[in-house]
């Protein structure tokens, strides 16, 4: 009996020793180079329900690496209203909303320049990687640090930080102020470019990538589904304006664009030697193809299903590459999206859900006419500079010339917006004072405030009403736009499906805590302690504090990641 007990105790001690080796979460931090590499995958326009919709069709090692062997949060929603690409990417890596990071939309009206500007354009910089003198981009409008910035600060600049996407804003904003480089493509040729903000010339490996015409192999190909049916072609064609359509427009709406991005990502990991030094490195990869296609066909089209399944295979291959190059035991992976998307009006209408297209130029004309009647005795006046539905950007000069103050001009514009069919509005002046109702919707619009731009009004759209005359869009405060996936893979994370409420701002709060570094300056997210192994057990611990009135739902059956590593070998 004593011998049996002694053997049992010896086995127990041996098991604890193995666990301490395979799950060094207590000692892991950026200060000792654990993990070696953090990879954040952002899928542009990837709704939170997609992972469940296609889950039974996913292969081993792709999305299922995170769903089956990671920590997966099913109820992740943005708590703001301006669900656009630029604010979403900024939010994910700053852990703040627009009220903290300042990015209001993809573009806004600049009263000094008297034109619309993009969220990342920077007249003091130039593009690098293509001929000519085109203006470059930088994070100069970003009012917060990012996870990469804090990683750089913590390691005295030794950590390597890179970000990439097809779109400039989807690369620049996640990279932050201190990134070693952000890369995106020149839309016509598909060549990878950066900005003089980061460097004056491309590194040799990136220049060689472009000069070898890697983009060329993705032209003139058919994209087929699993049954062999052709879904799209990348044959050369004319654009709507009669010019030759470019790489972004033609290839960008197919899975070939994701192949192209991940091909570049592998080169970046190899030649920049990410994950092989003594510090923790960071790579952010934003996959843009889903958004380009989704705007045209909507979330319920067969092409979108085929895109998700193709991406599943592509991620499996990329994660396998990371395993061979760095070792998955040395890598943490996080996955999320910048926003969702509304169904096509014809799809919603068939199910008797009220939905239609709105003629935005006509609405802008009606708003201008209403304001002219009130302030200019009916004289035609351009009171709106642009109407990026549902945001109206005002012509401050027109109002000022009539002695109308900002607060009064914005309120009058909001009332005119309600007259043409919007449910309500919030003015810039109102939000700057924090004057919003204490409701979930009020909180979302407070979080959408930015001091950037001139005068503006955030309209509250009617659900499922799409601005434009075709396709679909995002930019509403409703779940079809706010609900996105959030999942983690790596040794610190306790395997399981978590149905407690989470937000995209929680991602960097959690990663920063695990890395032992400061969270970004304006971060407001919580650390997702329920998903951290091995010290927390969701079955016995109290649920985390909620920021919203929603009650937490019970977690699924959990197993510590360390035990998975022991049972299944290296993860």
Give a written overview of the molecule:
- The strands form 5 sheets. The chain has an 11-stranded mixed β-sheet, with helices on both faces. Strands 15-16-18-17 form a 4-stranded antiparallel β-sheet. The chain has a two-stranded antiparallel sheet with strand order 3-4.
- Strand 10 and strand 11 (230-233) form a beta hairpin.
- It has 21 helices and 21 strands.
- The protein is α/β, with parallel strands linked by helices.
- Helix 10 runs parallel beside helix 12, helix 11 packs antiparallel against helix 12 and helix 14 (360-375) packs across helix 16 (406-419).
- The longest helix has 24 residues, at 302-325.
- The protein folds into 2 domains: 40-112 and 120-342 and 518-525, Alkaline Phosphatase, subunit A; 356-467, Gyrase A, domain 2, CATH 3.30.1360.
Sum up the structure in keywords.
Gyrase A, domain 2, disordered C terminus, 571 residues, four-stranded antiparallel β-sheet, disordered N terminus, Alkaline Phosphatase, subunit A, 21 strands, alpha/beta
């Amino acid at each position: 009996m004593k011998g049996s007990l002694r053997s049992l105790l010896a086995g127990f001690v041996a098991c604890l020793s193995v666990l301490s080796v395979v799950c060094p979460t207590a000692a892991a931090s950026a200060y000792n180079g654990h993990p070696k590499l953090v990879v954040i995958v952002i899928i542009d326009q990837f709704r939170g329900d997609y992972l469940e919709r296609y889950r039974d069709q996913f292969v081993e090692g792709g999305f299922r690496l995170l769903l089956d062997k990671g920590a997966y949060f099913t109820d992740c929603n943005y708590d703001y209203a301006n669900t656009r690409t630029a604010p979403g990417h900024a939010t994910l890596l700053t852990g703040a909303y627009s009220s903290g990071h300042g990015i209001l939309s993809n573009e806004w009206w600049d009263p000094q320049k008297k034109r619309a500007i993009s969220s990342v354009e920077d007249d003091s910089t130039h593009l690098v990687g293509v001929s000519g003198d085109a203006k470059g981009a930088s994070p100069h409008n970003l009012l917060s640090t990012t996870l990469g910035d804090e990683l750089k600060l913590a390691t005295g600049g030794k950590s390597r930080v890179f970000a990439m996407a097809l779109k400039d804003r989807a690369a620049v904003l996640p990279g932050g102020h201190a990134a070693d480089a952000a890369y995106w493509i020149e839309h016509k040729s598909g060549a990878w470019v950066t900005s003089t903000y980061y460097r004056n010339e491309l590194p040799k490996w990136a220049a060689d990538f472009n000069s070898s015409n890697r983009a060329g192999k993705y032209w003139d190909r058919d994209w087929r589904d699993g049954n062999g049916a052709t879904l799209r072609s990348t044959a050369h064609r004319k654009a709507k304006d009669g010019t030759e359509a470019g790489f972004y427009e033609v290839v960008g709406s197919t899975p070939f664009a994701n192949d192209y991005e991940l091909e570049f990502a592998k080169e970046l990991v190899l030649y920049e030697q990410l994950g092989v030094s003594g510090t923790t490195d960071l790579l952010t990869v934003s996959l843009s193809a889903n958004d380009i296609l989704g705007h045209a066909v909507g979330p319920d089209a067969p092409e979108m299903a085929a895109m998700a399944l193709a991406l599943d295979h592509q991620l499996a291959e990329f994660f396998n590459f990371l395993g061979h190059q760095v070792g998955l035991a040395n890598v943490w992976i996080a996955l999320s999206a910048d926003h969702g998307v509304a169904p096509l009006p014809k799809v919603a209408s068939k199910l008797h859900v009220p939905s239609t297209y709105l003629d935005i130029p006509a609405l802008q004309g009606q708003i201008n006419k209403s304001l002219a009647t009130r302030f200019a005795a009916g004289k035609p006046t351009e009171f709106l500079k642009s109407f990026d539905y549902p945001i109206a950007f005002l012509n401050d000069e027109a109002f000022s010339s009539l002695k109308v103050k900002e607060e009064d001009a914005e309120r009058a514009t909001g009332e005119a917006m309600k007259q043409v069919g919007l449910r309500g509005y919030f003015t810039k002046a109102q939000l700057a004072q924090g004057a919003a109702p204490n409701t979930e919707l009020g909180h979302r619009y407070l979080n959408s405030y930015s001091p950037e731009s001139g005068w503006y009004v955030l309209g509250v759209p009617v659900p499922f009403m799409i601005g434009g005359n075709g396709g679909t869009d995002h930019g509403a405060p409703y779940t079809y736009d706010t609900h996105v996936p959030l999942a983690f893979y790596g040794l610190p994370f306790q395997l399981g499906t978590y149905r407690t409420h989470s937000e995209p701002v929680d991602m960097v709060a959690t990663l920063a805590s695990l890395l032992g570094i400061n969270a970004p300056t304006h971060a407001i997210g919580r650390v997702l302690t329920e998903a951290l192994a091995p010290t927390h057990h969701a079955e016995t611990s109290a649920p985390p504090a909620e920021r919203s009135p929603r009650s937490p739902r019970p977690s699924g059956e959990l197993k510590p990641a360390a035990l998975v590593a022991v049972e299944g070998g290296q993860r």
